[in-house]
Amino acid sequence: xxxxxxxxxxxxxxxxxxxxxxxxxxxxxxxxxxxxxxxxxxxxxxxxxxxxxxxxxxxxxxxxxxxxxxxxxxxxxxxxxxxxxxxxxxxxxxxxxxxxxxxxxxxxxxxxxxxxxxxxxxxxxxxxxxxxxxxxxxxxxxxxxxxxxxxxxxxxxxxxxxxxxxxxxxxxxxxxxxxxxxxxxxxxxxxxxxxxxxxxxxxxxxxxxxxxxxxxxxxxxxxxxxxxxxxxxxxxxxxxxxxxxxxxxxxxxxxxxxxxxxxxxxxxxxxxxxxxxxxxxxxxxxxxxxxxxxxxxxxxxxxxxxxxxxxxxxxxxxxxxxxxxxxxxxxxxxxxxxxxxxxxxxxxxxxxxxxxxxxxxxxxxxxxxxxxxxxxxxxxxxxxxxxxxxxxxxxxxxxxxxxxxxxxxxxxxxxxxxxxxxxxxxxxxxxxxxxxxxxxxxxxxxxxxxxxxxxxxxxxxxxxxxxxxxxxxxxxxxxxxxxxxxxxxxxxxxxxxxxxxxxxxxxxxxxxxxxxxxxxxxxxxxxxxxxxxxxxxxxxxxxxxxxxxxxxxxxxxxxxxxxxxxxxxxxxxxxxxxxxxxxxxxxxxxxxxxxxxxxxxxxxxxxxxxxxxxxxxxxxxxxxxxxxxxxxxxxxxxxxxxxxxxxxxxxxxxxxxxxxxxxxxxxxxxxxxxxxxxxxxxxxxxxxxxxxxxxxxxxxxxxxxxxxxxxxxxxxxxxxxxxxxxxxxxxxxxxxxxxx
Length: 740
Fold this sequence. Notes:
There is one protein chain. The chain is of the alpha/beta class. Helix content is 50%, strand content 12%. It is built from 27 helices and 14 strands. The chain has a 6-stranded mixed beta sheet, with helices on both faces. A 4-stranded antiparallel beta sheet has the order 2-1-4-5, covered by helices on one side. Strand 9 (303-308) and strand 10 (311-316) form a beta hairpin. Helix 7 crosses helix 8 (202-216). The longest helix has 31 residues, at 525-555. The protein is elongated and about 120 Å long.
């Protein structure tokens, strides 16, 4: 933990004041909503002005931050094309040209990129598609795997570690990833619940949300749902500002954005960047990539970096652009957009023989010349009450002044001679049970506003049950009735799993929302898995009861009240394991169509090896393992035992032994004569009322002798938990959200 140790009594008094003013400063921010609302009518006063002004007593002076990055280089391996000649091994050769072509090729996405910016400023990264804009943003935001990126990224001269960066920063993706049926206010409130510490009262979180709504300029849309293709909601510009608001709810020190104006019209783009300017003025460092800013947007930017195929071709302020290109020999014409001219020139040079090499070299010389002339000295934090603060100490002091860094706490320790401030940075803002509660509440609220989804699910189950009930209506206890029961159970149990396939798109639609939120520790992955299971389970109960009520009495199943109860339980267990299996697959497959293909295929294999089409004793040894892995096997055997467990109940009597055989078409008199002949041959008296096959005999014939029905139930439930655990590991391993 970092500590600030006062050197003298005056400094000690100052630090005491800073620590004690934390709550009052935060309250001042959250209660000052009326001042913030001035922005909705054009007032440019920064939202957090009260937190970042210089007081006469020196207690509230802004804590400065400077972000610098040096020599960032990132190379990726280019996969060789699959060619016929590459399928055969080549002889070793000493020819350097041939040897070079045989090696894996690498592509440089970033090549010695350097720059710096400070709080209060917006740094924009510009360039054509493929120039490395998003790659540079990812590099600064620690979204490239450790070891793949060369160079350093420092804040106030100290290297940023991953855990610290997650707490003090935010990353806004290019796509607007939001729950469609939540309102703007609800969306931001859930973000506040995730990112703001539990110690902050809900009333203050609500005030923070209201202040942020005014800061983003979306007061008129606060009660409107986000919307999607099927539901009318807010506009594209408002969606983009809501996306930004979600990630800045905790007032981060560093804010990274990947093309926040992409797909917006000129006015909406200007409004978005105007919001970003206010955020920067509140004491944050804003770094974003942008494709082609308008003249009005350019006026809000403080620093520019132009990239071309991973190289820096310009780095400086917008005001220096004309002089730079004039000295390069391509002056910018009057009344022409500076960035458009620069980007057009860069594209033209990229298409020439020499490329942008000349412009890259000129930029290096121009930067050196400016340093020698002392026109652009390296940024250093301006004078502050504590010029020798370490990074953690500066962050702690910033929190003391009202920065709502997620879960960060500035804890003062007083003594007789010394006074220290400790920065506590927890990995997550809230305990696990709070995360589960908030995630469940959000998911249920979003689902409750789409009742048609659950309506379609329960309608499909009821219709399927109705069809099965009418097809297998009131089955008797004859040999044909036994065979029909087996068919009913096999189809019914497999239907439970196929019905669960509609859970596949749920996580696929939420995947990128989940990745965005967990990338900066909004909540634990385990909390998401548990919440997902809790939210999905109640609907499975309704589906189970609906199917059981539709089919149990209509088909004429046996077992009485206890049999009905077990029938409901095994159907619920089947829904549970099927839903868990599909949920696990949704964490593995990349698309809905591929997911449906895999689900249908695997479930068909499960049914094939369940024991209905081929008896367990007849399955080849090299396939028997699949029989025990089949999810359909255990519910199928459980319902068979539930139906045929009564050893006193008879299913084949006397001449019924000839049913389902060619002799079954003979007259009844002839069947009795044959039965008498068989009796004499065996030396056993067999009459037309003699019981020849009981329920136990049927179970033995079907090979259902290894497990009891309760063991089958427990195994089915255990499969559900097993696939939920696998789902957790797929999230843990597959959502690192970093380039390799």
